[in-house]
Amino acid sequence: MGVFKSLRMNLGFWLSRIFGKKRARIGIYGPPNAGKTTLANRIVKDWSGDGAIGTVSPVPHETRRAVRKEGLVINANGASIHLDIVDTPGMATKIDFREFMAYGMSEEEAKRRAKEATEGVIEAIKWLDDLDGVLLVMDSTEDPYTQVNVTVIGNMEARNLPLLIVANKIDLPNAAPSRIKAAFPQHPVVQISALEGNNLDELYNAIALHFG
Prior knowledge:
Blueprint: H1 3-19, E1 22-29, H2 36-48, E2 67-76, E3 79-87, H3 97-101, H4 107-127, E4 133-139, H5 147-158, E5 163-168, H6 177-183, E6 189-191, H7 200-211
Parallel strand pairs: 1-3, 1-4, 4-5, 5-6
Antiparallel strand pairs: 2-3
């Protein structure tokens, strides 16, 4: 553990002892288009009243730089938790510029976006060194047992980072969050729709329980 991280953790511990409240920096991770930024926007709106912190788009890798929102206070499960959230770029094991050309981008624009998306993946991995926990967002309509999900979970388990899986998009007719539970039974799973706001109270209770 680095010296600065150790100092930050000790400071957080004593602040929580002094003020009776807990603080955690939580990263929002997941593959492209799983709904990470939609969830980040929803959390910020619910607990600060502020507007969106990121742009949502059907084009993969819309978020290519990590975006932070600090100082949120979530009241759930009879407790308060101070939360800093980091909305990270989509995790991917392969980024092909031709995928973006299918959305009408020129070759030059698509290559630039692929380069930025690759840099975003590296930035997201680096953030893992400075987090207290992770919300891993998965699309409930997709097969959860992908190389990306398995790699991301394995990385977080190796770091002993508390992990809460968010099975998103349960409002869609072909959603099957039970497949996510079956694929990763070693981790808690909360089923939500970040877009429609379904089951968010359950998510906030789980955040307070696991990260508080």
